[in-house]
Design goal:
heterodimer; A: mainly alpha; 2 helices; about 90% helix; B: mainly alpha
């Protein structure tokens, strides 16, 4: 039961939001865009990992 | 894996998702995807021994188990397809959701074709 993964995703989301605001306020819009992008890629890799885990579990349980 | 932790996790993930939706929508959806996948995984792991006892029972009865395994495969496909299409619907993509559902239905149909064939053959044998 990987509960900490859920909180990791939430934490990354909040951190990226704060960083984005700070960078935008200080006039660096491009870096804000880049931080959002990297945060998105990191979280997406985690999501893909968990969904692949889900599919293998379903395959093994139902004998697909 | 009792029930209460799973329910608690669903509610907490929903609250976190609403929090994240205000600022960055994509993180809310990914958080929901991770939470739903974790819940389904833990439910399936706790159901796996019940599944195997059921399978042994069916094998013991001596009935031909191909129909049982086909039904079970269809169940697995429904679980995955439901997960994917509901996730797409959550993100507001109705078309992708219906595309996923169509793919799931076709997969179930393809699996059930040999079953239909053997059913017709037995019927013809009875008539012929």
């Amino acid at each position: 039961m990987d509960v900490d993964l859920i909180f990791k995703v939430a934490a990354i989301g909040i951190i990226v939001t704060v960083l984005n605001q700070v960078l935008v306020r200080s006039g660096r819009e491009e870096q804000a865009m880049l931080t959002t992008l990297t945060g998105l890629v990191v979280v997406l890799l985690m999501v893909v990992d968990v969904i692949a885990d889900l599919f293998t579990t379903v395959k093994s349980v139902f004998g697909l | 894996m009792e029930l209460t932790p799973i329910l608690g996790i669903c509610v907490v993930a929903a609250v976190l998702a609403t929090l994240l939706r205000q600022y960055k929508g994509e993180y809310a959806v990914m958080l929901v995807a991770v939470a739903a996948a974790a819940v389904i995984i833990s439910v399936l792991w706790s159901a796996i021994d019940a599944v195997f006892t059921l399978r042994n029972l069916v094998v013991k009865t001596g009935v031909d188990t191909t129909y049982f395994t086909t039904a079970f495969k269809a169940l697995g496909i429904c679980v995955i397809t439901g997960f994917a299409s509901d996730l797409c619907r959550d993100m507001g993509q109705q078309t992708l959701a219906s595309g996923a559902e169509l793919a799931g239905r076709c997969a179930v149909f393809i699996i059930s074709v040999p079953m239909l064939v053997s059913l017709l053959q037995t019927a013809l044998k009875l008539i012929g």
